[in-house]
Design a protein that fits this description.
By secondary structure, this protein is α/β, with parallel strands linked by helices. The chain has one domain: Rossmann fold, CATH 3.40.50.10420. The chain has 5 helices and 13 strands. An 8-stranded mixed beta sheet has the order 1-13-12-10-7-2-3-4, with helices on both faces. A 3-stranded mixed beta sheet has the order 9-8-11, covered by helices on one side. Strand 2, helix 4 and strand 3 form a beta-alpha-beta unit. Helix 2 packs parallel to helix 4. InterPro entries: FTHF_cligase, FTHF_cligase-like_sf, NagB/RpiA_transferase-like. Its cofactor is Mg(2+). It is an enzyme of class 6 (ligase). Keywords: ATP-binding, Ligase, Magnesium, Metal-binding, Nucleotide-binding.
Length: 242
Amino acid sequence: METDGTEVVQAQPGKPVNPGEPPRPTQQPVEQPVEQVPGVERAREAKQALRRRVRRSRAARTGEQKRADEVSLTRRVLTHEAVRRASTIAVYASLPDEPGTGELRAALHREGVRVLLPVVVEGEGPPTLDWALDTGPLATTGVLELPEPTGERLGPDAVTQADVLLIPALAVDTSGVRMGRGRGYYDVALARFRDLRPNATVIALVHDDELLDASTTPVPAEPHDRRVDAVITPRRSLSSRA
């Protein structure tokens, strides 16, 4: 439950909590892949259009907005029940346009939580994320030039040590369908995580305007896409798992 005066909203298909509030997420079997939408190519095109729109919106955000939202997001994540119970949490080191996680990582360390960060594995083969302990320092590495931890690599299966997986997204709808940047790294990691830790919690972190109403503006889905259990923004917390 939220402790800042706002409850974590439990999913009730298509109905808002109070008049004027956005609809709550519909419950879905989170461990199963999303059903294929008619026309995979059409879904891919729709995703590209949505990605362009989100990137334009993110580019317009000011530094002041980013700082304020990072503080609000950190507070909201820390009061989520699954996070409060967790001893190990996997999170991401945020890019400049993503919901910031620097404050969150520091707060988790202060609470004594073991924090894992992803490391992109380059080369041929399927997109793969390795994992390492978050010891503080980050280095911009690899062809993608992502901020990554400098500590010992623990292997792709290390993500299954996490009780909660906090992941980035460009958009998520109220049924839990997530859209990333299109490279597939988190799709593969989520499949691994679901297989080995089916009862652990996956939470997507997005900006407020990137949480979309599934009844009117659903995120386009492809067969490989996986739903998340919850979505947290600086001002909202939605959950599809009781």
